[in-house]
Amino acid sequence: MGFSLALEVILLYLLVTFWSAIQARVWATVDHSDHQGFPTTIDNPFVADIQVLCPSSKEWEPLELIVDTGYHGEGLVTREAVEKRLKLGGSVVPVDEIICYLLDGQPLRSTGTLDLVWKGYRKTFRTLFHVVDGDDLPYQILVGAKAIHRERILKFGGFMGRNIPPKKSKEEKSSDEKRREERRKKAAENDEKVAANKSSRWDTQQHGEQSSPNSFTGFQEKTA
Fold first, then answer.
1. Locations of Basic and acidic residues compositional bias (predicted)?
2. Residue 7 CA to chain centroid, in angstroms?
């Protein structure tokens, strides 16, 4: 009886630990630091609070963004958000085309395109959005797989394996190379100083031995 209870406790502990690890791995697939550019919510790591630049007023308008890898384009923005929140209805380039099909098989049509500058915590992005109509859409603005991949908005955390670090920008790589070059120069200068000190001590020691009156040669001459 006691052995069975202990076994059940151990199995329950392992199950809870495994489930916590899975949740942590899913949470880790989204970079919550400012490297990716915007903070996400704990309840849904694929929903983020962003700010969109309004060119006319030069002010940033807050919107709720959804990261959707299921949409293969750049991004979508609702007509309501464009006209009522951003006041950019006159900047939309009119188009009329089917951009994708929804899960129920219905086509989603674009009524125009709009180039928007938006940001999260620090990083700023520029994306071409399709404007879509609809009163009951579950988003205000959405970025798709093409923008996600280009801007590295999501990073792959591996299948319960090691984390894969995000690629660094050219500026970050250049800064890292400069730091490595500075470290190499300092190490070389330090090696030269150490070698010079050793050589100086060796020369001093040799000179002292040659001039000492207690040297072996001097002792032989005195006793001769």
1. 168-180, 187-206
2. 42
